[in-house]
Structure formats: C-alpha cells, structure tokens
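To start, an entry.
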Amino acid sequence: MATIPKAHIPVFSLYGEAGRGATPGFVHVEPISMRAQLHDWTIGSHRHSHLAQALLIENGGGQVALDEFTAPFAAPWLIWIPAGTVHSLLFDPFSEGSVVTMSVDFLAGTLTGSPNEARLRAVADRVLHGPLPDFDDIGIDFRQLAATIEMETTGGLACSESAVAAALKLMLIGLMRMTALTGGPDTHASARSAIFRRFKRLVDRTFREQRPITRLAREIGISTDRLHAICHEAAGMSPRALLHERLILEAKRDLRYTALSIADIAFDLGFRDQGYFSRFFAKRVGLSPAAYRRAHAAHESGRAAPP
C-alpha cells in the first residue's frame, strides 16, 4: 500500500467520490465487490471526515492498514473504522461481504439518551478488527443487521429511520460484546465523560492551531485543573500530552501517506520552525521525521501483497 503522491491524504464521502462532508443522516450499504472490483481490489489510503464504516467480510480476505496498524484478514471478519481514521484495504480478488457506512451525526443521534450511551460512544470511537463473532457468542447477528439496514434504507418502509437507528445501536452493542469476547478494554462511562469527549472533539478540530490548554479548558467551560483530572481519569494522560499525541498522529499520517515536505508538514501542524518540529517528533517517536518516512517507505515497498 504505497504512499499517496498528493499534497494531502484524500478525504472521501464514499471511496472515489470526492467530498469532505456527509449528508446529514446518511446511511448506506453496498457489497464489497461493488467498489473494490472497480479499483482492482485495492482501496488506497484515505479517510472519511464525517463517516464511520463497518466492513463485514464474508468471503475471501486480504490486508488492512488502519493508521499505523497493518494486518492480514480472512473471512469471516469484521473491521470497524471510526470517522477520521486513515485506512487502506487490499482485497483478495472476488472477496465479498458488506460495507455499512453511516454519518457520525446519525450514529450519535441513535445513542442519545441510551442507558449505555457513554460506553457505546467509547466503542464507536475505537478501531476494531477481528474475526466476525457467532450469534451464539454475542447474541447479535452482524450479517442480519447489515441486511436489515440495506432493506430499510432502500425499501420505502414505514418508520425506516427508527428501524435503521435501532439496527445501528444493536451493531454497536455487538461491537462492545465483541471487544469483551476478545479480551479488549471495555471503557467505563466515567472514563468517557461528556466533558472528555468534548475536549477530544475540540482537539480534533483545532490541534493545528496548538491552542493553550487554558484556552481549551475555557472553551469547554471548565477549569484547567478540572480538565487535567478528567483527562487523567479517561486516558491516563495530561491534556497537553493528548494534544501532542494528536499532533504526532497527524504528522505520522502525513509522513507515511503523502509527499508533503517535512517543512510543509511542520507548518501545517502549527510549528514555525522545522528544526523544533523535528526535535518534537524525534523525542516522542524515537526517529526523526525523515528517518520515520524512510523506514515506512522501505517497509511499504518490501511488503508482500496477500495471495
């Protein structure tokens, strides 16, 4: 999965369809082969700014890259991709399954007021990737949910929006149970408080400006001390460390997936001095930006494609 020779990582509505936004309330289901076959079974590195996706692979397999995580997969398999995650997929020819795509506003609306809202939102914010669990293990059939969503979004049935919302909520519950089944972390409501989520969203929108933590706290409407306490409870990190983590993530994405110069990346991320950016990056990653780019270029060029 090679570096993209473009100024920035492509942002699509659906893959190959340019656009940074998403129609409010958008939900869509399509077969994997419908889009993958058009692109020779290779979905290049990109992200969706306001869309989350669930891929249910029922036949075939391939290789997936999710930000820095890369791994093979084989049916039956499930991949959950939150909005904003850089991802690419290399499918074995004639792989099949379903891609369920939903706007984040619709997904959030399905959870509002739910008794388990905080836990389900936490699951929705995480990349998940693993064998598709059986109904006997989690009490939820992902394949049937995808079929239901497809029927409700295309069949013109009464109360279809409510039916889709219910199916998406069941899908998130299934993801949470899948996480528990595989021994992954199940974040408690207290660790994902509404204030912490607001802070994370604010950081995602403004990290390139590198606003002072005092200002971020003020914009959320709490004291700096309170923000520190909430961030340590939710993530075990200070607000500044979380901001720096977000900057490093975006820097890695740009170094790995674009041809932007290091100077341009530094400027785009709010650094006035390339040298300072290089020291900032090396201190946290253990490699200079140039060395990181070279290492991943060598890794990408030497990676064997799945059979």
